[in-house]
Design brief:
46% of the residues lie in helices and 12% in strands. By secondary structure, the chain is α/β, with parallel strands linked by helices. The protein folds into two domains: 3-180, Ribonuclease H-like superfamily/Ribonuclease H (Nucleotidyltransferase, domain 5), CATH 3.30.420.10; 198-236, no CATH class. α8 (198-204) crosses α9 (206-217) and α9 (206-217) packs antiparallel against α10.
Length: 237
């Protein structure tokens, strides 16, 4: 199973965000690509504050649409498994640019399944929490790729240790399964029941959980919190 580590930086974090930086690494060949593109919409100030890429910095860069790199990444993703941290976001960005993804592994969800003692599971947090030895800047697509590669190796080793799987194929299949399995949330982090467990609230006020499920389910699909919906359904069945 061929894989491709990939990360993007974008104009913003909304559903219509566009690509400004694309980085990916093919571990089978060692090929690493890191390119910037001029987006069709301005970069938001909020995004600039995260990745430090300004409109002026990409003003003379090529447009992604019609570029050679668009054809290349389309071809690669037709034969390779995309590996990304919070993969649905990167896949959404690629889709906005006319690039479809067939198969993927989301290291964010896999990490949330396997590393329960971490306070959070953002890529750069896990970099330091796990002591990953990586040289690279945070919130830069290429720097994030280097961290992603090390995190992926850590998760593979963890699955092999805990499951007894010996082949890469078995381990990757488990990663795919974990990617498709939502997390059952434990504690409310918002609202009037903040810091209470979902189990406690289910015993005390099931009506609130049903109301919240109905409210969340009525949102557009890309706006829904999949884990929250999964958890609310679990406790209201």
């Amino acid at each position: 199973m061929n894989i491709l580590f990939l990360d993007t930086e974008t104009t913003d974090i909304g559903p219509t965000a566009r690509l400004i930086q694309l980085a990916y690494k093919n571990p089978a060949t060692g090929e690493t690509i890191n390119e910037y593109f001029k987006p069709p919409v301005p970069i938001s100030f909020g995004s600039m504050a995260v990745h430090h890429v300004t409109n002026e910095m990409v003003a003379d860069k090529p447009v992604f649409e019609g570029s050679e790199q668009r054809s290349v990444i389309n071809e690669l993703l037709s034969t390779h498994m995309l590996v990304a941290h919070n993969a649905p976001f990167d896949m959404g960005i690629l889709k906005n640019e006319g690039v479809e993804t067939k198969n993927f592994i989301d290291t964010l969800r896999v990490a949330r399944h396997l590393i329960e003692n971490a306070e959070q599971h953002k890529l750069q947090y896990l970099r330091y929490f796990l002591g990953l030895k990586v040289e690279g800047s945070a919130h830069d697509a290429l720097g994030d790729i280097l961290v992603l590669e090390q995190l992926f190796a850590y998760l593979k080793n963890l699955i092999a240790k805990n499951s007894g799987f010996e082949t890469d194929e078995e381990i990757l299949e488990r990663m795919i399964l974990l990617t498709k399995t939502p997390i059952l949330l434990k504690t409310f982090t918002f609202g009037k029941y903040k810091d209470m467990t979902f189990e406690e609230v289910a015993r005390k006020d099931t009506g609130y959980l049903k109301w919240l499920l109905n409210s969340e389910s009525q949102k557009k699909e890309f706006e829904q919190n999949e884990e929250l919906v999964y958890t609310l359904r679990h406790y209201t069945q």
